[in-house]
Design brief:
Blueprint (H helix, E strand, L loop, with lengths): L12 H16 L2 H20 L3 H4 L10 H23 L23 H19 L17 E10 L5 E10 L1 H31 L3
Antiparallel strand pairs: 1-2
Helix pairs in contact: 1-6, 2-5, 2-6, 4-5, 4-6
Length: about 210
Amino acid sequence: MNLLDIEGKPLTPEAIRMLNYLRTRSEELGNDGIRARVKAAADELEGVVAQVVESERNARPVAGKWTIAEVVDHIAQTQIRSAEELRHLFNGRRPPGPPVYEALRTGAPGWAPWQELVDGLHSANRELIDLLGQAPDLGDGAEGREAPKVLTILVVMRALEGGGTGPQIIFIDLDWRQYAILQRLHLLDHRTQIRKLRASLAALSTSPS
């Protein structure tokens, strides 16, 4: 594997494992299996979001990190863009324009009602899941042509030499199955992020002043 990250450095073991996972799972799972796993991840995330109370949505327990509202907005915006890219792939076209950037979000968390953000998340998830139900049966394009791929920004957390972790960012072309499995992982990552944010807020509320 000759891929390099955005800094021109070789892929870390964590990144290689991620790419191998996307490749093997995309080969093992049929269309229904991929859709079911994406839906399960979306349902799990939405269940965590449903537990968020109004006082938590814009609280920032860690300076410089996102709030829960910003995470929810990011997921909704990413899901809609991902659905657009899948439509192009399903129709035999490489998606135009820039890839879905890893920090994609809007200014809505600063002013939109919480329920509007939650509804937007539900709507975006349903859009992607419904679209996966229309996925083509074959991996190759018409008349034996290779199926189109989508340029994707892959962010993989890796161990740093001095301790701790940090991201390795990679540009890579993925087919629609690999891309859909990546959306599942994205949903689960942010599910965990929201849980950690809520735990941090709970710890702050119980700590002595």
